[in-house]
Amino acid sequence: MTETNTTALLAGDDPLVVLPPLHIDIADLRRGVDNYHVDVRMSPKFAGDVRRLATTLLQRAITQNPQAIDSNIFNPLRASYLDVMTHLIHRVKTNLSVDSVKLLEFALLKLILTTTQGLLDATIDELKESSSESQERSSANTLSTNQRLFWLQRQYDAILMNVNHQIFAQLERVETRQLRDVRLQYLPSQHHDPLDLRLNPMLFSSDPSANAFLIEHYRLWGGDSEDAGFNALNASIEAILSTGLTQFPIIPLRSQANGTPELSDDLGGLFQTQKFMGMAIDSKNILHEEFSWLDTPENLALLFDLEKRSEALADIRKESGFGAWWKARKELKTRKKILESLHRDLQKRGVFTLLIASSHVKRLWSPVLAEQTEGKLLCQYLSGQIDLKKLQNRSQSGKPFTDAQLKQFSTSIAQIKLEAGPRKLESTLTILQDISLFRRHLKYYRLAHRAFNRLRILKKDEEFKLSREAGTLYALLTANEQQDDEDRIVHHTILKADVRGSTMVTEELQNKSLNPASYFSLRFFSPINNLLTQYGANKVFIEGDAVILSLLEHEKSPQQWFAVARACGLAKAMLNVIHANNRHSEQMGLPELELGIGLCFTDSAPYYLYDEDKPIMISGAIGKADRLSSCTWKLRKIIQGGVFNVEVFALADGENGRGEKGQNTIRYNVNGILLDAFGFEKLGQEIILKRVVVKINGSPTTLHVGKYPDVLGKNHDLVIREAQVGLWRNDAPVEGHTSADRFYEVVTNRKLISQITNQGAPSPL
Fold first, then answer.
1. Claim to verify: residue 525 and residue 424 sit in the same structural domain
2. Is residue 27 located within the same domain as residue 160?
3. What is the per-residue DSSP string for 61-101?
4. Is the domain of 87 the same as that of 217?
5. How far is CA 737 from its chain centroid?
6. pLDDT for 660
7. Residue 501 in 3-state DSSP?
8. pLDDT tens digits, one per residue of 81-135
């Protein structure tokens, strides 16, 4: 959210405050596995505390338990909320921007709202099921169950509002008593009250136009339409004020903006605001709301508090002279005329007295009264729109009003007449202020729901794993949970095995009336799958002529950082499987398989895309490993397999193919394993490597020898050949060429490995 500023507009000598735009830039937040929402893992403790408290409060509201609540039941929620929020706000010092923190804050509120609504919906569903079962059995309980169901559905919004209000009150307590100083220290100051924005009472209700909600927090607007009559009332006020106060332009509440609507509406909040404000246009990476001076109730007091302005006239004449006094007096008369015009409009619409009565119903309201009548009916009675008989006849419980209640009604009626008569202009002003507050809260409400719709609170372990591996998970946890949270991926190694001649093998098998799928499965894929656990590898891609595997290293498990060494061991094991099966295939007259394997290390986590719940790894190491596993046909013609199975040549300047797709080298890799330079460097950090120089076929050869543990803790020998990159010019190797460039091959020759590891130096080969 941007820093706020105040625009001063002069009304006489009084400045009007125009709240600055609300602006939350969420571009820095990584999108989750669906490429739209921000994935959030909510603190299990906070979520559990919310659920337990909501369950208790809902039960009390449904059973209408009049006993006082033990305040201790709120302690766990306050403690976990403080813990999570403190840690979240402090993250502006580490890995989150201020705007990112402001968005993630809404995740806690979304959890509360979805929990309370979910619990209430589940209760209603259970009653529906019970009613259906009772009807099938012709049970005597059917009537009482149906009555209870009817009452719950009728009181749905009032119950939801009651429970949410109590929970949000606890958050407000923590915010004012313990988090205020933390916010002031780490989050920029602002003119928008964070409590008013985030703990907006509109969030308590599933419908901002519900009668119970309006009476409790604003006023009953007096209409029966889906907007409860607010739109016509607001539009008329905007028109009168725009005509009377031309110097103060008003931004209309209802927008006619065109564009693409928001992509989602998880809690239905944008649908609710649409009837008041028009369609919510997709704001993409920026959550934004504009404000008018009419959205600030204090401005209306500055403009239309006639009593205060009258009292100030004497001081103006004394301090500023007759001219200023005359001007102020003239302005006062203008303001009074505008206020009178507003009053006449409310009278003409037949809602003035009803609007006044609404505030009295709020003071009279009680659980007992809620059982007897609706708030709207009582407003109509107190305002004189219906008589007592009609009010009584429409009683929900059939119980007559008591003498004490009737006396309260009479007192309120007398006060309403006073407020609608001699004090009519004062009442008009307070009504205007409530309309102003409703306007502002509508904008806060829409912004909150824009935020809710950007957040996805994950609930399943599979979802956590997918998002975490993709590097898109934001965890909102308590301090203790932070310590216990799973490691994030910090490094990874890719193994790519290229199956040579798979098409020819398939054709040969088909010619022999054999099943290629069974052949590859039994002799290649299944044996490889059996190796993965031992070496800590994961499938990235296994299909047809390619096998891609990953070995991941996690932040909090450095004792398991052997990804390169284990990838080397796994690659050797895969070739052993191929060699063993090839011997069997030779005996059976079946085609043989041939591999080329590339290993590539990256000092970072991979990214993931998802096809439904299937992860698709995105890593530059995959492409590089693919090139390392490749074999150029030209080299196959001139190189014969022997002790080693890999050779690498740099393409000379001007050589055909140099520079294509970034390629500057060609490779011979037939049943060999080629390790990239970064991988070799990482291997030296994983295990102790002893450098040995020996003569093989008359040539000095550099070998690096060591041991590594597999996942089960068993040690294995590992030998790496370090060799010079040759030069390829005019379609042939350049004899006698020397270069500082090196390549690294994982040695698979068993005789050589045995001689090196058992004797320290091999006999000449």
1. no
2. yes
3. HHHT--SPPPGGGGHHHHHHHHHHHHHHHHGGGTT--HHHH
4. yes
5. 57
6. 63
7. coil
8. 999 999 899 888 777 899 999 999 999 999 999 999 999 999 999 888 887 777 7
pLDDT at 282: 86
Condensed to tens digits (0 to 9), the pLDDT of residues 631-641 reads 998 898 888 87
Distance CA 109, CA 97 (A): 20
Q: Flag whether 764 is in a domain.
A: no
User: What's the whole-model pTM score?
Assistant: 0.68
Taking all residues of the chain, what is their mean pLDDT, rounded to a whole number? 87
> Which pLDDT does position 188 carry in this prediction?
74
Residues 435 and 528 in one domain: no
SS3 82: helix
HSE (side-chain half, CA atoms, 13 Å) at 360: 26
Cβ-Cβ contacts under 8 Å for 204 (sequence gap 6 or more): 160, 161, 164, 165, 168, 213
293 lies in the same domain as 251: yes
Give the total number of structural domains in the chain.
2
- Dist CA 437 CA 196 (whole Å): 10
With H, G, I as helix, E, B as strand and everything else as coil, classify residue 712.
coil
* Cα(502)–Cα(508) distance, integer angstroms: 10
Please say whether the beta carbons of 57 and 77 come within 8 A: no
Look at residue 470 and tell me if it is in a domain.
no
Tokens of 184: 């002031």
Last residue of a domain, one of 437, 458, 479: 458
Provide the residue range defining the domain that includes 303: 7-458
- The Cα 297–Cα 745 span in angstroms is 76
CA atoms of 608 and 612, how far apart (whole Å): 12
d(CA 532, CA 516): 23
Q: φ and ψ at 345, to 5 degrees?
A: -65, -40
Does position 762 have pLDDT exceeding 60, yes or no? no
For 196-345, list the strands marked E by DSSP. 286-289
748-751: long-range pairs with CB below 8 Å, 24+: 748/572, 748/575, 748/645, 748/671, 748/672, 748/673, 749/643, 749/644
Query: Above 50 in pLDDT, residue 265?
Result: yes
Q: What is the pLDDT of residues 524-566, one digit of tens each?
A: 788 888 999 999 999 988 766 789 999 999 876 777 899 999 9
Taking only the tens place, the pLDDT of each residue in 161-204 is: 999 999 999 999 999 999 888 888 788 766 788 788 888 999 99
CATH number, position 525: 3.30.70.1230
**Are 601 and 692 within one domain?**
yes
Give domain status of residue 28, yes or no.
Answer: yes
Q: Do 224 and 315 have their domain in common?
A: yes
Q: Coil, strand, or helix at residue 694?
A: strand
Same domain, 450 and 503: no
Q: DSSP 3-state helix, strand, coil percentages of the chain (rounded to 5)?
A: 55, 15, 30
Structure tokens at 553: 């290293």
∠ at Cα 55 (51, 58), nearest 5°? 135
For residue 486, count other CB atoms closer than 10 A to its CB: 15
